[in-house]
Amino acid sequence: MTNGYEDASASGAEYPLQVMNPHYLRRAHSVFDNIGWLREAWTNPVFISTADAEAAGVSDGDTVLVSSPYGQCVRNACVYAGLMPGVVALPHGAWVAVDEETGIDAAGADNYLTGPAPNGQGVSGYNSALCKIEKYTGEALAPDAEQPLRIVCKDGE
Predict the structure, then answer these.
(1) What is the pLDDT of residues 58-69, one digit of tens each?
(2) What CATH code would you report for 5-146?
(3) CB–CB of 46/107 below 8 Å?
(4) Is the dihedral of CA 110, 111, 112, 117 positive or negative?
(5) In the chain, is it the N or the C terminus that has fewer CB atoms within a 10 Å radius of its CB?
């Protein structure tokens, strides 16, 4: 599978949008993603252009399902007129929180949407993927600040 703009813009493409993963003010990669006041100050939406939101029947703040060939996540939409149609932005670095029953990530982890792209240097070479966005029919997503923090600790502490 290819993941380029040409593939997304092809007529009738199953995944017509290209999701990019900008660095975000809330965290540095995944560092600080478990800090409550940063979660409150900077939500982790998926940014979508006004034109693409209208085409999908999505309004600002709606819970949406972002799907790629590799995974799915739910996020609240932030409709943004300054974003080019055909491109959505999902901030980089969220800690994955997969619902084991549905396989859907509730944290908006961008890496959960990307496939393997080895570059021969010991790291994956991806920064975007193809996706589609649709209004989510399940329970609305609670704000990130209300999601439980995942505390990492040593055995027995």
Answers:
(1) 999 999 999 999
(2) 2.40.40.20
(3) no
(4) positive
(5) C
